[in-house]
Amino acid sequence: MTTKKFAPLFLSLILLAPALPARAAAPDTDTRTELLEETSVPLSRAEAAAFFGGPAKDDRVLVIPAILIVMAGAKVWNVIMDNRPTADLDSAYASAIPGFDFNWDDLAAWRKVTRRYRFTIDKKLQGRAVDIVYEVSFYHGAIPSPQNPALKGRYIANFTVKPLDIKLKWGWKVSLQAAMSNPMNIGTAEEPVAWLNADLTWRYAKPLSTDPEIGVNSLAVDGYGKLAEAAYGQLDISPVPVAEYREDAPALGWN
Predict the structure, then answer these.
(1) Residue 38 forms beta bridges with which residues?
(2) Is residue 106 classed as helix, strand or coil in its secondary structure?
């Protein structure tokens, strides 16, 4: 008798169950890349002398005569391997510079842009397992041609990525590789504007794991100094407010 009395109530609860909201499980891992700060300063004459000796003439130069832009520097390099900076950083850079002869003394309004980021992995039980601060920097500006004043343009030099601080909990393995695209001209044939893209590929493995997870930060920069970001995989870039972009930077004088 008791069973028959409560059967309709029990059946109604079963029918209502699918309509009840499911309780979402708390994420075990939070992986993100955060922009800490950005600076943009005029390029000094000493920096220009160190990095701008004219068009590069090594076997890594990709010449694109139609748009008068050459690629100088490494296409791919390791930034962090086995949890520490690699020797690649001594000479790893990328530049999108003019293919015609030019005089670096004629540089106009060149600036150095530096962005500092923090890459972190937080575990629900462990807390912060990975904490890496790294820096992305590049030079950008205009170059007129003394041989032909009609040949102008805006270019990129010394696009680099380097780690500044690495903190890992025991057993974690992290690596970072930078891959630079071929340069593109987003301006005109008469007045090129260089564009480069860097894909920063993170690989990280938990303790006692040989199956790494992968995430990619994509950074695109042009000759005006604009830098756009995108994240793929589990990475989530959280930018901080930066100063409003100004296309017309003040002229730079060294004399």
Answers:
(1) 115
(2) helix
